[in-house]
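Sequence design from tokenized structure. All designs in this work follow the same two-part layout: the structure record, then the generated sequence. An example of the structure record is given first.
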């Protein structure tokens, strides 16, 4: 039985791919700089006998043809970039690139896809169709490596019927997985405001145009975009996260710089909100005598899991791990450039549990203490191989 063969190989190969994960974790590279990571992935695919192409500069697209390769085409995706975080874990495989760390689990994602690739290629006479292996750069930084891979035609010749990716879940126990149909993660746009006034002595505000006062009114007013213009059943978040101005206590500055993020779960509302943000900002700043420069850096779209594909994947997970180990993923306002793929073909983005409280492995992603229970590697490589061969 194919499932048992895959589970047996995942167990046998787990130590090898834990070592792969250690190598990747020790040598993290920032978005669009994944040159050594890409070479390492290429070397591994070559050693497995899997053909590949380099895409989007540092991306890699592999392909495995099973029996009747034209019968079905499925894509499996992993991201490869790391974050500008200084690692604080005391482990022998800690980052050797100071100030750069795999703090979001992309080393795990790449490892799981490499492990699945080895298993799928070894068993290619036992399953039908073609599996495309997408190792992409730049998930952590606009414009998103997924968009660049799509532009470089990774979803063409042949076009997959669906695309699937896993992501580590630090709130879910090792051995478990979670799925959600429909809306899964939010879009993410970056907001940059420069508010200019007229500076002067703090004791004479009447002869100034105070950009700090203007910015303060603007921050409060922007919240109306969410609280009074959005349907409360439509998840959305606007957060101002940086307020930079001034140098000392007795000087009103010339300008204020604000930064923030806008998140939404609905693409129509997303772009309506952009116009509201522009109009509210201009009205407040102009009305108080200042001038405004506003840049909305449009980022990743929402991640929408296609229902039929997701329910098939959930069923495969239940076959692989048992029903009690498969749960419903919570709605998240975080963002993922996997949403670009989901706009092109049916998609399923699911979560792989990596937490182990008994081992003290509980730190969240994007933190200097992030780590995983490496027993999750066996689950990840086996599950990706099972989905790739059977969905």
């Amino acid at each position: 039985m194919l499932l048992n063969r895959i589970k047996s190989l995942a167990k046998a190969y787990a130590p090898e791919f834990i070592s792969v994960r250690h190598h990747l974790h020790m040598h993290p590279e920032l978005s669009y700089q994944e040159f050594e990571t890409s070479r390492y992935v290429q070397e591994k695919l070559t050693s497995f006998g899997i053909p590949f192409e380099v895409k989007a500069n540092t991306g890699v697209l592999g392909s495995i043809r099973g029996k009747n390769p034209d019968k079905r085409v499925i894509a499996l995706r992993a991201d490869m970039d790391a974050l500008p975080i200084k690692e604080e874990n005391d482990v022998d495989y800690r980052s050797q690139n100071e100030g750069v760390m795999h703090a979001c689990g992309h080393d795990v994602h790449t490892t799981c896809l490499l492990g699945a690739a080895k298993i799928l290629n070894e068993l290619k006479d036992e399953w039908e169709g073609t599996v495309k292996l997408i190792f992409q750069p730049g998930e952590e930084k606009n414009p998103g490596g997924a968009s660049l891979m799509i532009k470089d035609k990774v979803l063409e010749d042949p076009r997959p019927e669906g695309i699937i990716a896993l992501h580590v879940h630090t709130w879910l126990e090792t051995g478990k997985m979670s799925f959600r149909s429909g809306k899964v993660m939010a879009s993410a746009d970056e907001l940059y405001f420069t508010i200019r006034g007229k500076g002067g002595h703090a004791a004479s505000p009447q002869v100034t145009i105070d950009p700090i006062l203007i910015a303060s009114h603007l921050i409060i007013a922007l919240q109306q975009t969410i609280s009074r213009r959005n349907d409360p059943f439509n998840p959305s978040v606007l957060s101002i996260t940086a307020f930079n101005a001034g140098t000392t206590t007795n000087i009103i500055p010339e300008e204020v710089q604000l930064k923030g993020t806008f998140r939404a779960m609905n693409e129509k509302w997303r772009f309506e909100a952009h116009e509201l943000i522009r109009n509210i900002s201009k009205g407040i700043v102009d009305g108080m005598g200042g001038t405004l420069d506003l840049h909305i850096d449009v980022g990743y779209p929402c991640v929408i899991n296609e229902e039929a594909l997701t329910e098939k994947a959930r069923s495969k997970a239940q076959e692989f791990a048992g029903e009690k180990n498969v749960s419903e993923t919570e709605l998240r306002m975080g963002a993922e450039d996997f949403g670009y793929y989901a706009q092109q073909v049916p998609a399923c983005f699911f979560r792989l549990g990596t937490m182990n409280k008994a081992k003290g492995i509980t730190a969240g992603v994007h933190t200097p203490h992030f780590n995983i229970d490496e027993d999750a590697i066996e689950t990840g490589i086996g599950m990706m191989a099972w989905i790739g061969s059977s969905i």
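The domain at 187-297 is CATH 3.30.70.360 (Alpha-Beta Plaits). We note this feature because it recurs in several other targets discussed in the main text.
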